[in-house]
Amino acid sequence: MSFFERPDPRLMQSADPTPAGAVIAALVRDATALGLCVAVVAAAYAVNVAAGLREAARTRGSIVVVGLSAPATIVRDGRGVPHVSAADDHDLYLAEGYAQGSDRLFQLDLTRRYAYGRLAEVLGARALRLDEAQRAVDIDGIARRQLAALPPRDREALAAFSDGVNAAAANQPVPVEFRMLLYRPARWTPKDSLAVAVVAALELADSWHDVFARDAVWRGDRRCYDSRFPLSDARYDVTVDGVAAAATSAPAPARDCDGFAVVADAPRRAAGSNAWAAGALRSRDGHALIANDPHLDLTIPGIWYLVDIRAPGLHAAGATIPGIPGVVLGHNERVAWASTNADMTTTSVFVSGRLDERGWSSERFHVRFAPDVRAHYYRTRGEFSVADDNDPTRIALVRWPLYAQTRSTISTALALDRAHDVRDALRILGNYRGSPQNFVLADVRGEVAYHVAGLVPDDPAWGRYVHPARDGQRAFPLVPFDRLPHRNPARGTVLVSANNRPYGFGYPYRLSAQFEPPYRAYRIATLLRSRSAYDAAYFARMQLDTLSPIDLRIARDMARFAREHRRDVGADGVVALSRWDGRYTPDSRAATLEHALRTALYGEGRTLGAPRDERDVAAALAFAAREPRRWREAGAIRIEHPLAPMNFSFLNGALLPGAGDEYTIHLQEPGFAQGFRAVWDVGDWDRGGIAIPSGESGEPGSGHYTDLTRDWVGGTLPALPFTRAAIERNAAAVLELLP
């Protein structure tokens, strides 16, 4: 019965003569009906989600895929890693897209939404602030400009890859996350792949938030700046060649600088990656060797996707970022490449002066279960606006070279997949237009080389302060590629890169506001100097090393302090600190004690910390002495799914036992760790290998969701089959894609 329909008299006659009773009876009936409806809907939702938890993409048999010109094959090895082969480039990238879409469809869509600032559409108001921040950069606009300028060959690769992702979305089961959030993904496009590459570059860029934080110190009292944000720790500096260049004594601490009482040897939060290489003359089998372990957010599914791709004239293997075709880090048949974040300044920040009204635009945000929201942004061809962290009432302008860049980093990745040797790879890197990276290279001739590549503006601020508005009229030219730090190809050298300062005395550019502390680089160089020749197994063991030079120094200093000042941390505690070897091994109690001590004294995530006087050190010692656990428990971290904060923690991965800390080669800290470990014996590609922390598949119903964690914790480095014979020996599932 509609609202305007005349009531049926029979209903009136049968009504309860007591109005209150009739109302109550009606409410009871309605409540019961509503409850039944809610129960039915909840049950249907639960059944749908449960089904999604059990389902997984099909990996065997054959399937027709529109767009193929000839059959293509996806052979999965025992770890679920796809080995994709096709008759030409187009079919190869389409098949690779199909593999990624089968394994990581929700991750692809979530990354795309993060890039475009559209998470709130499916996650609700809690994601709105993140969306508003992302929209400031206008990644959608950057991706559109890059798509328009894309070379035809790369455009065709992205189009084929997109067709493959969409074919998988149409043919494979709907991933459980879509069932839980009750939506379906839009079609993947070439622009989406470009947006993923842009957001990856943005994550590696010098954040304007960091510039604002440094600016507050710079303007407060510049005498404090170098103590608060040291460029490096000279006691542990090493060159790119692994030669120690450390100072013999600790720098003198700065005192009482406008309220800052700081110490120069307090470490700051670590981030970054490790890479090192040895030329053929330094290896046991006469091949060059190269190792790489990038450090990124620790999530499930992981940020990296392992793959092997083969077509006439192209054969490459290693890791890529879901959403990007080809191989981003790895090797082809003749050359291998690794990278670490260069930690160099990419952003220039300016106080906003008079703004042109034509530069303002308004953007609408669709928010799930809430009204739409609008936000206003100021953009020019070379700059965009952000809120000033130090003064919320005003905006600042950010100049980020990639914002106005029309060349995509995907072009560089696709070109490296075809590089002939180290020299050819260096030529390709000369055109790299991303956030600056340290690239380490090795080829089958036994040569290794190093070069920083990327966009580094010659900005005199180097990220240390916010420019006055008048500086907005100045242009900061890019540092030329051939003037960025590098080492020429050689067969008898070793190379080291771990986000540390890559240059020595006399280099003309500062390049950074602050490099990562050199502790990992120092340790890598120490291990390389400990022998004259290496093999892949030794490089793999190095990646598991848990000794922290700075933590060992802190432990010795604190033990000495406790004895000299008769501070009670318990006799066992003092002995443990004085005897500790600096290794963050799972069974170590001394590692737990030292880490708790360092945290109490210096704080988490602080560059330089509290005043180091007797009372503070004593209090820190007393606090740390109450920590009874072994590092296995104290340093344990959970591999979390992005939806875990929404009470979907059943999607989480394993709990990794404590092993290593923020300053060890085996880097592991809450939410952050080695994203993969790879060692390549250059030319003997079936040796060495690559490992990831969880599994290749992003589907909980797959047997490859968490299956690789045991090997990861155990330190095993499985080979990535590369030759046809090795792939056939390790084949576990074969899917043929038919035109």
Describe this structure in words.
By secondary structure, the protein is of the alpha+beta class. Helix content is 34%, strand content 17%. Helix 18 packs antiparallel against helix 19. The radius of gyration is 28 Å and the shape is globular. The two termini are 55 Å apart.
- Mean pLDDT comes to 89
Question: What is the beta-strand fraction?
Answer: 15-25%
Shape annotation: globular
For the termini, the CA-CA separation is 55 Å
Q: What is the name of the CATH topology of the largest domain?
A: Glutamine Phosphoribosylpyrophosphate, subunit 1, domain 1
How many separate domains make up the residues? 3
What oligomeric assembly is this protein in?
A: single chain
CATH hierarchy class name of the largest domain: Alpha Beta
Question: Could you give a short account of the major beta sheet?
Answer: 11 strands, mixed
- By secondary-structure content and strand pairing, the structural class works out as alpha+beta
Are there runs of 5+ residues with pLDDT below 50, and where? 1-18, 257-268, 605-611
Q: What is the CATH homology-level superfamily of the largest domain?
A: Aminohydrolase, N-terminal nucleophile (Ntn) domain
Strand adjacency order, main sheet: 1-25-2-3-6-7-8-9-15-16-17
Number of E-state strands = 25
Please name the CATH architecture of the largest domain.
Answer: 4-Layer Sandwich
Alpha-carbon Rg, integer:
28 Å
Number of helices: 22
Itemize the secondary structure elements and their pairings.
Layout lengths: L8 H5 L5 H36 L6 E4 L7 E6 L4 E4 L3 H28 L3 H4 L4 H10 L1 H11 L2 H20 L4 H6 L8 H15 L3 H13 L4 H4 L44 E6 L10 E9 L7 E7 L2 E7 L8 E4 L2 E7 L6 E4 L8 E6 L7 E6 L5 E4 L7 E5 L9 H8 L5 H8 L7 E7 L4 E6 L32 E5 L3 E4 L21 H11 L6 H7 L6 H16 L6 H9 L9 H14 L11 H11 L6 H4 L2 E2 L16 E2 L11 E2 L2 E3 L2 E5 L7 E3 L17 H6 L9 H7 E8 L1
Parallel strand pairs: 1-25, 3-6
Antiparallel strand pairs: 2-3, 2-25, 4-5, 4-18, 5-22, 5-23, 6-7, 7-8, 8-9, 9-15, 10-14, 11-12, 13-14, 15-16, 16-17, 19-20, 21-22, 23-24
Helix pairs in contact: 3-7, 3-9, 6-9, 16-17, 18-19
